[in-house]
């Protein structure tokens, strides 16, 4: 694999902007799409193939459920491999979440307990997925609204050990980390201290919503000032990384997304001077 994401900001490309990007070819650093939206082939895959000729592509999965108790679904993995082989993405990533057990699936990205037993299980799942895909996966830290009382380690330690055991990479979602700090009191410095810097392949930025004092990772707003500040801290700590602007609900005009990406680019440029 030789494709890599450029050291620029990209945008999450969603359905309302497909046609505009195809017709106008705006100067985007790179694009991310949700893998599962293209498993059916046909017109969507043909469109993505055209986009991949113009922009580096990151495939971002939401359904593999590598943190689940059961192994990854073989059909899901096969569909992801077919898509990745067809597109030749610069990056393939997944949420580190729990979403299925005993043949039942939850339409949510559920958190998992950070225990040695779960670490063994997840490491097996990640290794199996990477072997099946023939690619390194980047795993994303999750936004969470609860913490398990029997946790035996912090999330950063869990991720670091997963990298050591499987050779996977990490996708550092800065907004998720901020949400967890505000909701659960996560120690950001301890989280950063635990992460292996060279494993971080991407960063994500997004906007949250607030409900009854709880921050919800809705990807429905511009990036808020404290998230930009945390992003600056992450860049100072780990160096510049390809950075994505995510916006999945109440999707604004494309110009709004590109303006957010341009702002992220100013942070990246300042970090490389």
From TrEMBL:
Alphabetical list of InterPro entries matching this protein: MbnB/TglH/ChrH, Xyl_isomerase-like_sf
Cited SUPFAM superfamilies: Xylose isomerase-like (SSF51658)
Pfam families: MbnB_TglH_ChrH (PF05114)
Family: Belongs to the UPF0276 family.
Record-given protein name: UPF0276 protein EBB06_03870
């Amino acid at each position: 694999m030789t494709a890599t994401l450029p050291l620029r900001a990209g945008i999450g490309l969603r359905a309302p902007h497909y046609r505009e990007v195809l017709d106008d070819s705006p100067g985007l650093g790179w694009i991310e799409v949700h893998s599962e939206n293209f498993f059916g082939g046909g017109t969507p895959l043909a469109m993505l193939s055209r986009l991949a000729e113009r922009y580096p592509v990151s495939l971002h999965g939401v359904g593999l459920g590598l943190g689940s108790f059961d192994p990854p679904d073989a059909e899901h993995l096969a569909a992801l491999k077919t898509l990745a082989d067809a597109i030749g993405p610069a990056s393939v990533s997944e949420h580190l979440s729990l979403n299925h057990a005993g043949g039942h699936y939850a339409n949510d990205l559920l958190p998992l307990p950070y225990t040695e037993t779960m670490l063994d299980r997840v490491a097996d799942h990640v290794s199996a997925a990477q072997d099946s895909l023939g690619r390194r996966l980047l795993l994303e830290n999750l936004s969470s609204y609860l913490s398990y009382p029997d946790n035996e380690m912090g999330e950063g330690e869990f991720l670091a050990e997963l990298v050591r055991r499987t050779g996977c990479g990490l996708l550092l979602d800065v907004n998720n980390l901020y949400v967890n700090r505000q909701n659960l009191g996560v120690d950001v410095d301890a989280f950063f201290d635990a992460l292996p810097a060279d494993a971080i392949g991407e960063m994500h930025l997004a906007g949250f919503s607030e409900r009854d004092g709880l921050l919800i990772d809705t990807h429905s707003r511009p990036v808020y000032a404290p998230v930009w500040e945390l992003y600056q801290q992450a860049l100072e700590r780990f160096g510049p990384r390809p950075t994505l602007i995510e916006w999945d609900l109440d999707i604004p005009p494309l110009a709004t997304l590109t303006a957010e990406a341009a702002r992220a680019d100013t942070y990246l440029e300042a970090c490389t001077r």
